[in-house]
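Backbone geometry:

***
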Amino acid sequence: MSEYPTDEQLKTIAEWDCPKNGFMPLVEYIRTIWWGADSQMKLTGKKFELHTGGWSGNEEIIYALKQNFVFWTACWYKHVTGRHYYFKIKKLKK
């Protein structure tokens, strides 16, 4: 994906209903709009990494993720200077 994410796509991320729809489908959705997903995004088992590459569109996606309280509080693990974000995808309890 090389186009800037639309307002609707960012809203989808920010308002994603994680308890209803799960974390992994959100991760897969992000993959479809993340610039440089092949090199700037990594999913290994339950570990998920996002590296913005300094692109403002990816930064907007990170901002939308931060607005998703459930995802960010449940999955965020750490971030490192240079715009590197690390998450641990957890299984939701019913």
User: Anything to note?
Assistant: The beta strands are 41-44, 47-51, 76-80, 84-88. The chain has a mean pLDDT of 92.
